Every structure is written in structure tokens, then in C-alpha cells.
Amino acid sequence: MLMIIFGAGASFDSIASIPAPSSFQYRPPLTNQIFDLQAEAWRGQIVDSIRFIRPLIHEFEEMGATANLELALEEWQAKASNQEGVNRKLLALRFYLQRLFKLCGTNWPIHVHGKTNYLRLLTLVDQWRSKGGKQVALVTFNYDTLLDQACHDEIDLDIRNMGHYISRADFKLFKPHGSVNWSRSVKLTSEGGFIGPWDSQIVEELIREGAKGMQPTPEYVMNESGHSYLGQHHQIPAIAIPLQSKAYFECPIEHQNALSNCLSLVSNVIIIGWRASEKHFLNLWKGKTSQVKQVVVVNGSRDAGIVAHGSLQGAGFPMVEPLEMGFSDFLQSGHLAQFLESI
Question: Any idea what the CATH number is for the domain that residue 330 is in?
Fold first, then answer.
């Protein structure tokens, strides 16, 4: 089985004709850019619609793109003395991330009518796969749906419910950190009215309830509209908070079990734009890396590749090859085609 793992760098560099890191409208941000309100005016409009995110934004927007936002968020959470305030801000962050990446995922591919690097990659991979009846597992730690859209267009992966992500034998799609079009139900102690998809009154009430320790149900549902009220139930985004040492997955247990089963079958790995910092995911590989023959890391810069290289070797992966190129160059240079021919 071939496994391809995508991180934020993949979506950031997902249109070859708009090279990264040039500034362009609706480019999906890297993790350390999510609070950069100066990048585009519409991000500020999201903040204005979710008032409880404002204090968190103000605390972190001065950090700059070189800071480790995930580590900073984790340290901030550990130092905070007001747990109710922490809960409120972190739930507000979920709503902010949902809207931010939903807008990026919808508008970014419009620049090229959906012809993203994800689509080109899947075209080459499917051609390779169909020759030998091989299996492919796609793992993305991104919240956006750029990969989902490419799967629909290239391999006809028609996702209408949560089971469709893992139902096929040839391709499976995993989103361990959740997705902008997923949500989980919660029950409020005080019911509010429903006005619209971005109903600030409903969202504020959900955030207030969340501050008191409100827990969502274990059931995940497709929520393409992003409504905060769906099927007679209030909804919160099924999105993992970007912390350095995440200890949980934000996806159905059926997906987690299927992912664990796939790891035992993986013989080759391609990593694109992922720093390999998710220890919870790497821990799943314990005792399962001996059958992995090759790992190619495509993380843009040499330094980023070295960081991922160290994490992967520490997790027991052999034959890790970091390439000093991004997603676009990986496809245009022919490296992907060469790698597929070698396995």
C-alpha cells in the first residue's frame, strides 16, 4: 500500500501557477499564519463575527510567522488560571478555523478552475495504481476540502456520509484532525433560535455553553453548509485545536480503526508539507514501520525536511529521503512519476 500524508504546506503550495510563498487571495495559510489578519481583509470579518476569538487573536497576532503557534497555544493553555476562559476561547477558535479554511477551500481553487496540485497528483497516482491493482491511503491533517474535491473529480470518490471516506478498497481518505464540513452535536441548557448559517447569536450561545465544559456527542456528521443548527441539534465544528502535542484524533472511531489497519499494509510513504510533529499519529506506527521501504519528504525547504526527517527516524522509519522542493516542484520536476515507477 502507498500512503500519502499531507500537511499545511501542501495546501499552501497547491496551485503551481501561483507559486508559494507569494501572497494571493484565499491562499490556505500555514499554521503560523492563521492569526495574520493583515494578510487579507476578509479574515478580520470572520473575527468580527466571532467576538470571543478577539482576545486570543490579540494575544498571538504579534508572534509573527516564524513562531511555533502550536507550542505557544499549548503553553498559553497550561499557564491560564481561568479554565472557563480557556474553554471559551478554544471553542471560539474552532469556529474561526472552520470559517477561515472553508472560505479558503472554496475560493482558492476557483483561480484555476479546480486544477490544483492535488488533482494532478491523484491523476498520476491513479494511473500507477490501476496498472497493478495497488491500494492507496490518503492522510491529510488539513481542515480544508481541497483534497476531497480532487478525489471527487479524479477518482470519483463521492463522499455523502462519513462512511464513504473509507468504504473503497482502492482509495481511502483519512482526516485525523477533522474537516470544515464535519460537525458534532451538542445539547444546550438554554435553547436559542436559528437564524442562518453564520448565526452569531447561536454561535455565541454555543461558545458560552462550551466554556462550562459542554461535551459533544461521539457522532460525526457531514455539515457542508456549516450551519450551527442541523437536524434539530446544535452543532460545533469537528476540528482539532492546533496544539503541539495533540493527544486525540478529531474523526470517527471507525476511521481511526481503519487507519490503524492500513498502517500494517504500508510499504511506501510520500509526505508533502507535513512536519511530522503529530506524536499521536506517529505512535500508531509503533511496531509497523519495518515493512516500510521508502519515505520521501517534500517540505519545501531543506530545514523543514530535516525537521520531519528527524521525527520520522525517531519513530522508526527507515530510508527517509528529504527533497528540497515544494508540492508544485515535486510534480513539475517529475520526481513523483519517478518515485511511482520505482515501487
Answer: 3.40.50.1220
